[in-house]
């Protein structure tokens, strides 16, 4: 009779593997849910706090549902008629700026991805150089003024439409995802560069176009600094700048008053801090579900190969 431990039967090993895979899968799901809660709770808290009494929020009594439910913050915010002007301007800046940004950046990325482009390496270094060194605020302001773009609609969508990071991501996508054989086949059929780019490359690049479009749109939607520097006419101000001005004005009023009036102004100012975030954030967040199916694919493909 032989000594030693009996070997495990071959049938037992797949069962153990399946059990360990199941445990790992459950652990990953639990981790993903916890990570999602950590990411989503701050936004949920802002929503709940915007409907709660400011004193309850300040005392730490608001966690999962509103305390002292109120709509005063939203009512006070929507009393300002320029809110709707800001929405109109921001939507126009976002739509027009995103269209121009996609045209400029995707076209430049495709050109830089072509191996037959003369001076391709030099042009790539020229673009990358601007990521580390810029002309500075004052020279940029003087340039905008000399081109007669100051205090115009175009200053928000034209001078800053080139985004080098987006160009690099799109160039990587074209290099790694569009086969060179397609270009050779198109040439045999008499297709030129422009027609090949419009009719073949762009339809195959929906994922990266959606990703870049989302990035550019979010950038325009959240932008207020350029408007603060280059726009003087209040009728051209975007939503973010108008909300910033409203919030600063209410905070100043709450600090200047005395007695009961100051307390009311302070309460409204605290309420509006959360209402402003909701008013400014919710519209652009509604765009994400429509682009989600392209988002992961575009980011991953554009990040695989440099």
From TrEMBL:
Gene3D superfamilies: MetI-like. It is a multi-pass membrane protein. PROSITE patterns: ABC_TM1 (PS50928). It comes from the Bacteria. CDD domains: TM_PBP2. InterPro entries: MetI-like, MetI-like_sf. It is found in: Cell membrane. Residues 87-277 form the ABC transmembrane type-1 domain. One of its GO terms (cellular component) is plasma membrane. Keywords: Cell membrane, Membrane, Transmembrane, Transmembrane helix, Transport. GO terms for biological process: transmembrane transport. The chain crosses the membrane at residues 26-47, 91-110, 122-141, 153-174, 194-218, 271-291. Belongs to the binding-protein-dependent transport system permease family. This is Binding--dependent transport system inner membrane component family protein. It comes from Paenibacillus macerans.
């Amino acid at each position: 009779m032989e000594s030693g431990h009996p070997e495990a039967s071959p049938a037992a090993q797949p069962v153990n593997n399946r059990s360990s895979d199941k445990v790992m899968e459950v652990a990953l799901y639990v981790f993903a849910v916890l990570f999602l809660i950590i990411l989503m709770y701050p936004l949920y808290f802002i929503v709940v706090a915007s409907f709660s009494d400011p004193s309850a929020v300040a005392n730490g009594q608001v966690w999962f549902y509103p305390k002292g439910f109120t709509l005063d913050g939203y009512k006070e915010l929507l009393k300002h008629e320029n809110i709707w002007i800001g929405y109109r301007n921001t939507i126009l800046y976002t739509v027009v700026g995103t269209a121009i940004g996609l045209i400029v950046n995707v076209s430049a990325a495709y050109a830089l991805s072509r191996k037959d482009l003369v001076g391709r390496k030099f042009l790539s270094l020229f673009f990358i150089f601007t990521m580390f060194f810029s002309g500075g605020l004052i020279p940029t302001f003087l340039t905008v003024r000399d081109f007669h773009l100051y205090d115009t609609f175009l200053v928000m969508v034209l001078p800053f439409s080139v985004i080098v990071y987006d160009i690099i991501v799109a160039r990587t996508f074209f290099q790694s995802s569009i086969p060179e054989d397609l270009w050779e086949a198109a040439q045999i059929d008499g297709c030129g560069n422009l027609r090949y780019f419009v009719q073949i490359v762009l339809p195959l690049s929906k994922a990266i176009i959606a990703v870049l479009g989302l990035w550019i749109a979010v950038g325009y939607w959240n932008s207020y600094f350029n408007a603060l520097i280059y726009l003087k006419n209040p009728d051209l101000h975007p939503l973010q700048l108008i909300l910033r001005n409203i919030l600063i004005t209410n905070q100043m009023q709450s600090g200047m008053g005395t007695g009961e009036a100051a307390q009311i102004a302070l309460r409204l100012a605290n309420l509006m801090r959360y209402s402003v975030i909701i008013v400014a954030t919710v519209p652009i967040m509604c765009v994400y579900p429509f682009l989600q199916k392209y988002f992961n694919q575009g980011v991953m493909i554009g990040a695989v190969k440099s």
